[in-house]
Write a structure and sequence with these properties.
76% helix; Arc Repressor Mutant, subunit A; 2 domains; Tetracycline Repressor, domain 2
Length: 215
């Protein structure tokens, strides 16, 4: 949308939507999602309850919007890493840190994300098409990262999309671990483990590259 053509109504709608989402996030971090009510969200956002329903039909739709917001932000950060000048191995380290940081920051949303992901995969009519679209976008970005590493002979030569799912699986495993108890330092524990597994299993040692170039 051309910013110069944005109407006052659209500006107000965007402002209200952001305020409502911000209020939902604050309350969610304080008391979780299950006990959260639309009345509390309205009070925290400083709007009438009816105003919320102008933009979101239910609490579930609000949470979906938060998941979309997180997905969009994560994709932008990944795109910035991919566009940078660093070699693929450094980009991989930055990506692992970014993904684990997101899991840590979104510890309240992470279980909902997992639940919605399972629902969307198991239902014939996708329950969360937006979530699926963001998942596919992020997998595509990770695939690009691994493709770059393979092309430059820094990573093992396997299907880069498979490597994207391997990385996502490792990150989710750390998220599961975080959910199993009061592991406040789960990400600090998980970061070196995930990096070690990836570097030892995916990154080609220099001598292997030299042998391939010599043959």
């Amino acid at each position: 949308m051309d910013p110069s053509r944005t109407t006052k109504k659209e500006v107000v709608a965007a402002f209200r939507t952001n305020e409502i989402l911000a209020a939902t996030r604050r309350l969610m971090e304080q008391k979780g999602v299950d006990s959260l009510t639309m009345d509390e969200i309205a009070q925290s956002a400083g709007v009438a309850k009816g105003t919320i329903y102008l933009y979101f039909q239910s609490k579930d739709e609000l949470v979906q919007a938060l998941l979309t917001q997180v997905g969009e932000g994560l994709a932008l950060d990944l795109e910035a890493i991919l566009a940078g000048p660093d070699p693929p191995t450094d980009k991989l380290r930055q990506t692992v840190f970014l993904l684990l940081q997101c899991v840590d920051r979104e510890r309240e949303l992470f279980p909902i994300y997992l639940r919605e992901l399972v629902r969307s995969k198991s239902s014939r009519a996708a329950r969360s098409p937006s979530l699926q679209n963001h998942e596919e976008h992020i997998v595509g970005l990770l695939t690009r990262l691994f493709s770059e590493g393979i092309a430059s002979k820094k990573f093992i030569n396997v299907n880069p999309r498979l490597l994207a799912y391997v990385l996502k699986g490792m990150v989710r495993a750390v998220g599961y671990y975080q959910m199993t108890g009061p592991h406040r330092d789960a990400i600090q524990e998980g970061l070196p483990v995930v990096l070690q597994l990836l570097i030892s299993g995916i990154v080609l040692p220099p001598e292997t590259v030299q042998e391939e170039e010599a043959s």
